[in-house]
């Protein structure tokens, strides 16, 4: 089975080598690819594994619900028509409704995770093909650099090819971003619907569980935010320019970074790839407890 995370790293290394070669030949148009390739380093297998786990949860809950329905049907067959019997039936109906909500949420979560994993896997494969195309352009430009005239012609054609390739890359990147936002919206809607149904019934345990779970994941949420900030800043450093948009843009948006910063970002990116994590935040990953929560620094 193809290791997609490793393929993503290989794609980044191939793309970086091609960008360096083309820059040395006077074609800087390949360099914007590097920062984006650095950002799009994924491990889709983690999403597939999580989708399989949630699919198993769905199957287990379905089996449990069918068993409970069979038991309830057996009790009903005895014509238990007293007030206690009706109270039992109401309680079982509410319990079965809860199981159906869990089924639906587990199914939506499994499908969403599988969809996100498939999208990330496709992006990794696409990015590797883009890196291979960049390498082909670099090799062709290097081969064509026989005379100053042929080199100038090769530079012009390489620039045109890379501009078109980058436009296509950005289009695919936009589609991936829209799909992942849609996946996040689906998960949010599933949780909100489940909590809404429970709250309408007067059951606030779901809200309390959500608050407790969010607090238990607090260290990971803070760490994940810091890790992403470090990643984005590194990607901007690789681009060689100040961000032109987003939270990091400012009065110098689009201007060239001071000398040395792109090189430092490149060295850091190499270390990130070799260690499998961000240079700074990668060493501060919160420790996870057996119940899935994370330790706070003071614990």
Task: Describe the 3D structure.
With 299 residues, the chain is mostly helical. The chain has eight helices and no strands. Helix 1 (4-24) packs antiparallel against helix 2 and helix 7 packs across helix 8. The longest helix is centred in the middle third of the chain and has 62 residues, at 83-144. It is elongated.
What is the typical, i.e. mean, pLDDT? 86
Total strands: the figure is: 0
Give the low-confidence spans: none
The dominant shape is: elongated
Count of helix runs: 8
Beta-strand content: under 5%
Structural class based on helices, strands and sheet pairing? mainly alpha
**Helix/strand order, N-terminal first:** HHHHHHHH
**Terminal Cα span:** 40 Å
Strand and helix layout:
Layout: H1 4-24, H2 31-39, H3 44-76, H4 83-144, H5 148-200, H6 205-216, H7 218-239, H8 261-275
Helix pairs in contact: 1-2, 1-4, 2-7, 3-4, 4-5, 7-8
């Amino acid at each position: 089975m193809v290791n997609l995370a490793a393929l993503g790293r290989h794609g980044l290394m191939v793309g970086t080598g091609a960008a360096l070669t083309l820059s040395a030949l006077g074609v800087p148009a390949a360099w914007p690819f590097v920062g984006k390739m650095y950002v799009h380093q994924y491990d889709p297998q983690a999403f597939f594994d999580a989708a399989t786990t949630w699919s198993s949860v769905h199957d287990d809950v379905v089996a449990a619900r069918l068993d409970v329905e069979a038991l309830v049907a057996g009790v009903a067959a005895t014509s238990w028509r007293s007030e206690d019997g009706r109270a039992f039936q109401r309680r079982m109906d509410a319990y079965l409704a809860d199981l159906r909500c869990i089924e639906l949420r587990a199914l939506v979560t499994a499908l969403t995770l599988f969809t996100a994993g498939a999208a990330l896997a496709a992006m990794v494969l696409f990015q590797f093909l883009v890196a291979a195309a960049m390498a082909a352009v670099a090799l062709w430009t290097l081969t064509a650099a026989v005379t100053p005239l042929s080199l100038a012609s090769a530079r012009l054609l390489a620039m045109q090819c890379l501009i078109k390739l980058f436009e296509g890359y950005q289009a695919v990147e936009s589609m991936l971003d829209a799909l992942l936002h849609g996946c996040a919206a689906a998960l949010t809607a599933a949780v909100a619907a489940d909590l809404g149904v429970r709250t309408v019934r007067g059951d606030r345990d779901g809200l309390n569980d959500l608050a407790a779970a969010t607090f238990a994941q607090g260290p990971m949420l803070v760490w994940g935010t810091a890790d992403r900030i470090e990643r984005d800043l590194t990607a901007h450093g690789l681009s060689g320019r100040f961000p032109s948009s987003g939270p990091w843009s400012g009065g110098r948006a689009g201007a060239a970074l001071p000398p040395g910063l792109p090189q430092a970002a490149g060295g850091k990116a190499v270390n990130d790839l070799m260690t499998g994590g961000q240079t700074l935040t990668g060493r501060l990953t919160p420790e996870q407890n057996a119940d899935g929560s994370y330790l706070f620094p003071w614990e």
